[in-house]
Amino acid sequence: MPTSRRSLARLSFALLAALAIPTLSACSTGGTSDAPQGMTALAGEWNVLSINGSPLPRSVAESPRRPTLNFAPDGKVSGSGSVNRIMSAVNLGELDKGRITFKPVAGTLMAGPPEAMETERKFTAALANAKAFSVSGNDLSITDGMRELLTLSRARR
Question: Which of the residues 12, 20, 39, 108 has an alpha carbon 20 to 30 A from that of 4?
């Protein structure tokens, strides 16, 4: 009887090991190597320079809370709308085709100066209408497919 228990224990151990190895090796893959090339180009923080072809108002451009976007390798997006913190995500499957769509933007609900609030409203509307993007060096352009909605510059580290 002890032999059959030992055999059963060895079989159980071998079975658990066989199931655990693929699971553990799947956990080791990750990071930016799995991210689409388009996400690799976008990853990091960007400062908004213009919305709908107009530069940011001076009071907003010089503010420490100027509009920003931060793209994480997993497709999550966060940043500042100019008054409120914002968060969203992009559809990773579209990025390698030069297309970009943002999930509905969520954010904090603070009030601020009227000019900053209007800038934030235009900024989040531009994100909602985004369809395409291009990155050239440290410059990012987001369009609705016809006209430029946002121009951004990569933030200095």
Answer: 20
Q: Do 46 and 8 have their domain in common?
A: no
CA angle, residues 89, 90, 92, in degrees to nearest 5: 130
- What's the CA gap between 144 and 128, in Å, rounded? 9
CA distance 98 to 45: 19
CATH code, domain with 60 = 2.40.128.270
CB 135 within 8 A of CB 143: no
Q: For residue 68, list its beta bridge partners.
A: 47, 80
pTM score above 0.85? no
Run of H or E residues at 6: helix 2-28
The alpha carbon of 91 is separated from its chain's Cα centroid by a whole number of angstroms, namely 9
Q: What is the pLDDT of residues 14-24, one digit of tens each?
A: 433 443 333 33
Of all helices (H) and strands (E), which one includes residue 116?
A: helix 114-129
Q: What confidence tens digit (pLDDT) does each residue in 78-99 have?
A: 999 999 999 999 999 999 999 9
Task: Give the domain range for residue 47.
Answer: 35-154
